[in-house]
Amino acid sequence: MAFEGLAERLQGTFDKIKSRGVVTEADVKEMMREVRLALLEADVNFKVVKKFVNDVKERATGQEVMKSLTPGQQVIKVVNEELTNLMGKEQSKIAVSSKSPTVVMMVGLQGAGKTTTTAKLAQFLRKKNNRKPLMAAADVYRPAAIKQLETLGTELSMPVFSMGDQVSPVEIATRSVEQAKEDHQDYVLIDTAGRLHLDETLMDELVNIKEAVNPDEILLVVDAMTGQDAVNVAESFNEQLGITGVVLTKLDGDTRGGAAISVKAVTDKPIKFAGTGEKIDALEVFHPERMASRILGMGDVLSLIEKAEFSVDEEKAKEMERKMRTADLTFDDFLEQLEQVRGMGPLDELLNMIPGAGKMKGLKNAQVDESQIGRVEAIVRSMTKKEKSEPAIINASRKRRIAKGSGTTIQDVNRLLKQFEDMKKMMKQMSSMSKGKKKGKGNM
Ligand code: GDP
User: Fold this and answer.
1) 101: cis peptide before it, omega within 30°?
2) Structural domain of 367
3) How far does residue 222's CA lie from ligand 1's centre (Å)?
4) Coiled-coil regions in this chain (predicted)?
C-alpha cells in the first residue's frame, strides 16, 4: 500500500497532539523531530526534509496557531498545507496546444513504465478529455517496445504509428506528427527510446527529437519504487533535456513515498499523473492536496469517486444509481457490483482513500480473498429469485436452506446479508457525494 509506513508514523505522531488545547514550542519541536525521522525513513530527500521541517516549525509556533482555540489541530493543518505545497500546491494539467496536434514526448529509463504509461495516457485523454490521440512507437532500442505499443493500441482500438526499428527515432517522431495532422488526431504521444542508464547518447537523441518536433509537453516517466534514484533521474533529465512534468509510476508498490514527496521540490517540475497498477486504467491525475491527505490518513474520497466513474461502465452505473435511489438493489446487482469494485483495483488501495479506514484494525490488512468471493457467489446463487430481490424475507429456515445449498454456514449467510445492507448504505452515501461534487465541477 502506498505510503503505508509514513502514514502510520505520522498519524501516530499526530494522535499525540491532535486534541491538545495548549501546544508549546517544545511540543512542536518534539513532534517535528518525529516527523523529520519519518520523512527521512520514507526516503525523502534530506534537503527537502530540512526545509519542510523549518517551514512547519516557523508557522506552527506562530501566533495563528498558538492563539487559536484548537492549536493541536491547527498544527496538523499546517503540516497538511506545507506537505501540499511541497508536492506542488495545485493539480498541474496536461498541456493543450492552440494548434492541433498537441505533441507530447514520453521519456524515461527502460523499465520505468514508459510504454505502458503512453497507452494509459492515450486512454485517459480519450475517455476523460474527449481527445483523439495517436501513439507513436519511437522506442527502437528495447526489443519488444514497438510490438507492445501496437498490441496496446489494438486492445484499445487506438491508432499507433510505427516504422519498425530500422528507422531513426527522430524520423519516426517527425513523421508521426505529420500523420496525426493528416488524420486529424489532436494529440501525438511519442514513446521515445529508453536506456538502462542515463547516458549521453540517450540524451543527444532525445534533444534531437525535441528539436525536430518542438513538443508542447515532455513527460518524464519515473518509477516511484526507486525512491531517491527516481528523484536523481528527474533532476538529470530536467537539466539536460528540460522536462515539463513527471509521471510517477508504480505508486501502488511504493510503501515509502519519498519520490512523490521530493520530485517537485527538487526539480521544480510538477507530478502530473501517477500510475497505480499494471492495468490500462490504473492512472490517476496527481492532486497534491489529495495526496497529502492520503499520507496524513485523512482519506481521499474524491479520488475514490473518480476511480469509480472511470472504471465503471457508464450505462450500468446509471442503471445502478437508479436502483440505489429507488432502493431496489438486488443480490444479482450485488454480485455485479462486486465484480466492478474488483475491477477498480486492489481493495487495500481503495480502503486507503477512505478517511480513517487505514487506521481501522480489521480493515488494515484486508485483502480480497478470491475464495471468499467464490463463497459469496455460491450463496447468492442458492437464493430463489424472490429472495434475491427481497432479502428481507430471508428468515431462519431460508438461511438454513441457502447455507446448505451453497456449502457454507448460517454465519456466512448472515454476514453476507449484513454486508449487503452496509453496501447499500455506503453506495447511497457515495452517490449523494458524487452528485454534490458534480454540482461544483469546473475545478477538476
Ligand atoms: P518501459 O521500458 O519504460 O517502456 O516500461 P514498460 O511500460 O514496459 O513497463 C515495465 C513494467 O512495469 C511492466 O511490467 C508494466 O506492467 C509495469 N508497470 C508500469 N506502470 C506500472 C504501475 O503504475 N504499477 C505497476 N504495479 N506496474 C507498472
Assistant:
1) yes
2) 311-439
3) 10
4) none
